[in-house]
């Protein structure tokens, strides 16, 4: 994430020599790709604004479409060139989207590399932990976004298949949607996704544009125009020169926006699929609870839906399990480092940015754990709903079949981070506990060193 240059003892100025023709070509190519990418995504971004600024409440008489559950993440996918669900692949628009995605992907990877180079070069000049812990969350955030978007891209066909099967099971009439509470699910989906999207967009654009605001304020207060970049990255040319600064600033804004959207779109799609799975568990529970005695056809229908939801849940875990592990491990460190920065006596502007970064990180991890826990709770209701059904007086074969359903559903459906941790609210508590432990360790190491430096 971005930081002010004045916050560090090492200068981010590269060399004062004139850039070579290769540097000029490289920067110009990046600028052209950036401009084309922003133009191609302009209509999608306008749709996103209309969606986020639209009403949060839904009229109960409106029929809910399946696409409304995944509309927000798919708008963000469009901004980075990922194909939307059901979109044809052989069109000109599809090819342009692929160009947009791979250019965004390459730009993010390039940003990650030069962030690491800057970190390694700067580490030799640092005298305390403050600067190192300020740079580390930047790389962690970018690396995490890189892992998440590759999860989506590598398993794109599997995700499309999951969405297709969920759409087939989705209630399509107003009567069924009212009976199964689809409207309430859709309202929760819209409120959560819009709120989280607004928070993330505020975060990234404050980080991206705050250096520009600082430059303008400095110009009008003391007449100085001190050029600042949003992010600390290593460049082999002098980006302070006129023309190169503007191109580099645009390049970093593009990279920061892509990193945020990579994270945001993946998390929102993950949560949307879990919400649709929970809806199907609720449907099974309702049908078991209200099934008539000896209605074997209804019971078989419930079993088929239950088996399909379990299969889809297992498929979802196989797709997201590696990225969830990286997310949990990385978030523990990022929350620790950002919290450390917020309490390290930094300037008011940096404090504001790091507090916003901390809140966004906490909300992001909480969202994953909350929906993982929601899936556990939704699957846990199946045996109880079956027990509350009309099985008294039914035939022995029906009761035996219902008993098998109850025995199978006692195994809770849960998502894991490569089997190391269950995605639940309990895991969220453990992440916060680990972050606090790291935080206290850093504080214990930093404060004595700071005191020794002041005494010298």
Gap between N and C termini = 32 Å
Principal-axes geometry comes out as: elongated
Strand tally, please?
0
Largest sheet: none
Task: Classify the helix fraction into a percent range.
Answer: over 70%
Task: Walk me through what this model shows.
The chain is elongated and about 85 Å long. The chain is built from 13 helices and no strands. The chain is mainly alpha-helical and 456 residues long. The protein starts with 20 loop residues before the first helix and ends with a helix. The model is unreliable at 1-60 (pLDDT under 50). Helix 11 runs antiparallel to helix 12 (396-409). Helices cover 75% and strands 0% of the residues.
Descriptive labels:
mainly alpha, 13 helices, disordered N terminus
Task: Outline the secondary-structure elements.
Layout: H1 21-40, H2 42-52, H3 71-80, H4 92-123, H5 129-154, H6 156-169, H7 174-180, H8 182-222, H9 244-290, H10 296-342, H11 348-387, H12 396-409, H13 425-455
Helix pairs in contact: 1-4, 1-9, 2-3, 3-9, 4-5, 4-9, 5-9, 5-10, 6-9, 6-10, 8-9, 8-11, 9-10, 9-11, 10-11, 10-13, 11-12, 11-13
Q: Nutshell version of this structure?
A:
This protein is mainly alpha-helical and 456 residues long. The protein has helices spanning 21-40, 42-52, 71-80, 92-123, 129-154, 156-169, 174-180, 182-222, 244-290, 296-342, 348-387, 396-409, 425-455.
């Amino acid at each position: 994430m971005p930081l002010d240059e004045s916050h560090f003892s090492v200068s981010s100025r590269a060399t004062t020599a004139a850039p070579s023709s290769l540097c000029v070509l490289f920067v110009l190519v990046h600028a052209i790709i950036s401009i084309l990418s922003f133009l191609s995504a302009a209509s999608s971004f306008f749709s996103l604004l209309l969606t986020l600024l639209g009403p949060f409440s839904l009229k109960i008489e409106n029929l809910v479409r399946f696409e409304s559950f995944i509309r927000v993440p798919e708008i963000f996918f469009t901004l980075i060139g990922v194909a939307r669900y059901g979109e044809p692949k052989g069109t000109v628009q599809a090819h342009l989207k692929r160009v947009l995605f791979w250019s965004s992907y390459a730009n993010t990877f390039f940003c990650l590399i030069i962030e690491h180079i800057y970190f390694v070069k700067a580490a030799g000049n640092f005298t305390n932990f403050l600067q190192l812990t300020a740079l580390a969350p930047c790389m962690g955030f970018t690396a995490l976004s890189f892992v998440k978007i590759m999860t989506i891209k590598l398993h794109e066909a599997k995700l499309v298949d999951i969405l297709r099967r969920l759409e087939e099971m989705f209630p399509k009439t107003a009567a069924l949607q009212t009976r199964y509470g689809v409207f309430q699910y859709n309202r929760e989906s819209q409120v959560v996704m819009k709120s989280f999207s607004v928070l993330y967009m505020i975060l990234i654009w404050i980080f991206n544009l705050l250096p520009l605001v600082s430059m303008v304020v400095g110009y009008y207060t003391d007449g100085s125009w001190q050029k600042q970049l949003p992010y600390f990255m290593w460049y082999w040319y002098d980006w302070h020169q006129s023309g190169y600064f503007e191109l580099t600033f645009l390049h970093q804004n593009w990279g920061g926006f892509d990193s945020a959207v990579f994270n945001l779109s993946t998390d929102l799609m993950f949560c949307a699929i879990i919400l649709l799975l929970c809806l199907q568990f609720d449907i099974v529970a309702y049908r078991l609870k209200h099934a008539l005695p000896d209605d074997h056809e209804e019971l078989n229908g419930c079993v088929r839906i239950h088996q399909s939801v379990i299969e889809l849940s297992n498929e979802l875990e196989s797709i997201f399990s590696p990225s969830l592990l990286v997310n949990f491990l990385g978030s523990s460190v990022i929350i620790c480092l950002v919290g450390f920065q917020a309490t390290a006596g930094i300037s008011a502007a940096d404090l504001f940015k790091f507090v916003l970064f901390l809140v966004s990180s906490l909300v992001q991890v909480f969202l994953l754990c909350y929906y993982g826990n929601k899936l556990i709770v939704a699957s846990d209701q199946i045996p109880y709903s079956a027990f509350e059904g009309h099985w008294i007086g039914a035939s022995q074969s029906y009761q035996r079949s219902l008993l098998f359903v109850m025995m199978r559903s006692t195994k809770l459906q849960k998502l894991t981070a490569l089997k190391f941790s269950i995605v639940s609210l309990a895991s969220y508590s453990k992440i916060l506990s680990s972050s606090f432990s790291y935080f206290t360790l850093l504080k214990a190491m930093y404060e004595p060193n700071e005191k020794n430096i002041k005494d010298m």
